User: Fold these one by one.
Assistant:
Number 1:
Amino acid sequence: MIGGVIVEIENLAEKLESWMQFDTWHTSHHLDEERFNKALQSAFREFGNSISFEQFKLAMEYLVSVGKVSKLEPVYLKEIIDNLARKGEIISSYLCDTEA
């Protein structure tokens, strides 16, 4: 159990795939930001607001490993996944902190 919730990585990856399936998923283009936020919203609805950095990271790495997203240079890929997993965790923390 990570972050107080059991989330199957493949199930979380399925929610993130709607965003990561686009070649530009790793950019800060406003459409990619919108798809990222909608994917997170879908994940939070399904699994609750407590999703950890590690869960986000493993789900994104899973999508890369099974060829569901475009390949990037390994060093860049690690950095971008870490940054986006951290962003997902920050949003998760905010939602948990502001739950009524």
Number 2:
Amino acid sequence: MNYHNDDDFSSAEEESGSDELLTADDLRLPAEANVLVRLHAIRAWLNRRYAETSLEVGASALYLQTMARARAAENEARPRRRAAENGPLLNNAQRDLNASQRRLSAYDEARVLLENCVAHTTVSDRLLVEYYLALEERLQSSISPTDTPWITAMQDVMHRVEQMGTPGEDEE
């Protein structure tokens, strides 16, 4: 016996499908798109980037763990010879994990900044301007100017806000 209304499932599928469309990197909204649609597109894109980067962190951590175990096993078999050979691979795996974690941190900060802007700014075209300025300020006050993964992720977010927040300027 089916207790669910088919409309409940179709509306959930439509919302999921619309979120997928809004997260597309090449999304172009029409000039007349409402600020709420623009906001939803930015939020959906940020959530997608956060989820993808979370998977990267997990994959990097798993790879690092695998490399560390392999190195430990080889060090037991041939202590001096293999330790030198696996060092760079282990260092690269650690560097990849750190970079993924820094990108994840940037996307998380960008999501928090967005929600703070939504909470403290009226929902108008000014909201996206305030958000962009908050991102810019955070980027300029970054802890380390050499934190390339974090900086690149924040710049990606700013670019997305530019895409979604400037109606019609790309078409000219």
Number 3:
Amino acid sequence: MYTPGNILYFTPFHFPNGKSKDKYFLVLAHDGDDLITVSLPTSKDHIPNFLNKKHGCINDDQNKVNCYYFEGGKIISECRTFAFPLDTYVYGEQAHTLSASLLKETYKNTDTDYKILGRLSDSEFKSLKQCLMLSGSLKRGIRKRLEE
């Protein structure tokens, strides 16, 4: 379930602030113990209009922007079946770690609590990790996990 590159969909995902909503979930790294590094992609576009927006990495150090942009409808999975339905963004500063055991305890039932939608293609996953590594606001521990 928490294999790096996996694309999951939680129905719903429970946030630490008590809110819940259906949410995509990308596994970026799993350290072999309990911690997994994840990103919760969003359809919220925070890219300044003056930056060129095309599928892939958008990084602008001067304006402190780091984002991996998934163009809506573009196939990104290794099995060639999954694409985000909307333009979707992964922001470097929003990557974080979670406890795999706590997630397994909270989300027990496949197809009820969550769905495994596929795995990012190798090239897409490599590009995503390389992009996030460019972020000046990526936490040091997360950077180390992405390098492994």
